[in-house]
Design brief:
The chain folds into 2 domains: about 10-50; about 55-115, lambda repressor-like DNA-binding domains (434 Repressor (Amino-terminal Domain), Orthogonal Bundle), CATH 1.10.260. The protein is about 60% helix and about 0% strand. The chain has 7 helices and no strands. The chain has helices at about 10-20, 30-50, 55-70, 75-80, 80-90, 95-105, 110-115. Helix 1 (about 10-20) packs antiparallel against helix 2 (about 30-50). It is elongated and about 60 Å long.
């Protein structure tokens, strides 16, 4: 099949279905070329039709804390006092640029979580 820009949900469904069929294509085969094209087409359709919400910084930090088994008191050396950590995690206090930089590095988070594009 000759693929074109996906314009309808039906086009998207067909492309997604075919993508799944050939997902394990051998490298440098005609199917792998088709797979690469389909991945671009599906990504383009997704970006045009579905809003991808960015997680808020507090949720991202709490998720990372949960994943690593970290408690609020473990963030005190990074953020400051127990009260300061509590205020940030509860959303009562804004995350400053300096603290955002430290948390980004500590948790290996993308900067976009703290500074989303407007």
């Amino acid at each position: 099949m000759t693929w074109k820009i996906l314009k309808t949900d039906e086009d998207y469904d067909m492309a997604s279905s075919r993508l799944m069929e050939i997902f394990d294509a051998e490298p440098n085969s005609p199917e792998s070329e088709e797979l690469e094209l389909l991945m671009l087409l599906v990504k383009d359709y997704d970006e045009r039709h579905f809003e991808i919400l960015q997680p808020d910084p507090i949720s991202a930090i709490k998720l990372k804390m949960l994943e690593r088994g970290i408690r609020a008191k473990d963030l005190e050396p990074i953020v400051g006092s127990k009260g300061h950590v509590s205020s940030i995690l509860s959303g009562r206090r804004e995350i400053t640029l300096k603290i955002a930089q430290k948390l980004r590095v500590y948790f290996n988070l993308p900067a976009q979580i703290f500074f989303p594009a407007s």
